[in-house]
Amino acid sequence: MDNVAKLEGHLTARLGAMLGPRLAVQPTLGFTSSKPDELIRAVRLFFDTARRRGISDTSLGSANVIYLGLLLEALSQQRLDEEFIATLVSVEEPEAHLHVTLQRHLFRYLLRTGPSLILTTHSPHIAAVAPVPLLHRAARDGEPCRSIR
């Protein structure tokens, strides 16, 4: 139970850092079974502290951010346990289903704390806060990929 509470705390802190105070996400982990051999399969992620709203009851944007938060938490734990060689995270259009403010906050978080990152976006809001040397235009019709300077 201590590990579950610890994971819950880490995930809450990471999501708070990823999205800031505007999106009050307080995920909780709960069990749907009390049988010891079924507990690990019975862990459920809830979107609220009352444990009434499951992930399926939240918006797609929020669910995607929670998934990304869980992924980054797993990578962080692997680093602590020295169980990895290298990490490259690729995120396609993280702006999908997220408010502009959350797009910017999430992108800044990923730049500041994330592992090596490849991010594709159509969002002018993300591009507006990206450091220019990090921007690259994808190749089209055999043209080479070029940095934007």
TrEMBL record:
Question: Which domain of life does the protein's organism represent?
Answer: Bacteria
Record lineage: Bacteria, Bacillati, Actinomycetota, Actinomycetes, Kitasatosporales
Q: What is this protein called?
A: Endonuclease GajA/Old nuclease/RecF-like AAA domain-containing protein
Q: Domain Endonuclease GajA/Old nuclease/RecF-like AAA spans what residues?
A: 55-127
Q: Could you tell me which InterPro entries the record lists for this protein?
A: AAA_GajA/Old/RecF-like, P-loop_NTPase
Which Pfam families does the record match to this protein?
AAA_15
